Amino acid sequence: MREALLAIGTRKGLFLARSSDGSPFAVQPVRFSTVGVHAVAIDTRGHVPRVLAAIEYGHFGPSIMWSDDLGETWNEAQRPPVAFPDHTGATLTRIWQITPSPTEPGVVWAGAEPGALFRSEDGGKTYSLVQGLWNHPHRPQWQPGGGGLCLHTVVPHPKDSAKLGIAVSAAGFYRSDDGGQTWEAANRGIRAPFLPEGGQFPEFGQCVHKVAQHPAHPDRLYLQHHFGVYRSDDFGGTWTSIGDDLPSDFGFPVVVHPTKPDTVFVLPLESDMDRVPVDHRYRVFRTDDAGDTWHAYTRGLPEPPVHASVLRDAMSASPAGLFFGTRDGEVYGSRDDGETWTRIARHLPDVLTVRSAILPSVREPGFMSGTNQRMGS
Fold first, then answer.
1. Is the confidence at residue 361, as pLDDT, over 80?
2. Do 241 and 263 contact (CB within 8 A), yes or no?
3. Is the N end or the C end of the chain the one with fewer CB atoms within 10 Å?
């Protein structure tokens, strides 16, 4: 039996949905119904999958919970799981990202605001600050983006545990080749058109929205910028624009197909000032040649006009399918590389993050079989 789990973090709670052998996803009752769930991870490295959820308690602050029974019960460390050491003088505002390491059992990375990276060595229960990034000489000069100074992307190398990349809005992409002890800005070729001519390619200060990677081609990265879509073939050493064929190069998510490293998905928005889908229509653009050409797919998506955007973490791909959630609470899925879509959920709160996985005990190779089986209603 092939069983898939879909996790949907929203402004008011976490929704889990399950599907067996291509059946429609059944959305379960909400967890954490009164709090925001800003990041989710489904850690399938062990025989028992662990679901990790970054929640925001309101005046009690952010925390990370975990469940080893697919959301039936939840646990929290007795001490604050993620917290700044006293000497930093910093206060944790939000946890933006949870990323299990593909090379180190038990290691989980957490990206946080204000602009910090944390590392767990106990499967995501407790975390410590990565001092090398916090003490980087650029950090005092980092400026927050519209959503804050958020470390929203963690890109661990799937073959070399010493290599690691992160993205901060609006500081840019940084990489480490010694496990996070030292870091360098890696934004060469990313244009910042809001700066004066002659200074539009700074060392850092780019407003990176999201970075994606394929495990079979780990040095190739795809990046959605505030003003462009880019590809790097040397783990961020240099970047090349690949967004010229798109109707707009402004957007938030960028997602790589889990088995095809040249296949990438984006969902363009009109502009920075008008953050709605281009032409008020959801169109998922796919490239099968690493960004040389793009094609739009809309079948099964709602007719225009639509007005809700899709956030940076609200689109994802795994062997379970391709999914995205909207700011007006709808979730769509595709099992054929985005060519056709089915609505899985509607009338949810504002969707902040979407993650999916095939559960370990029934994991099978392959992705999006193309059977066009119904995903929801």
1. no
2. no
3. N
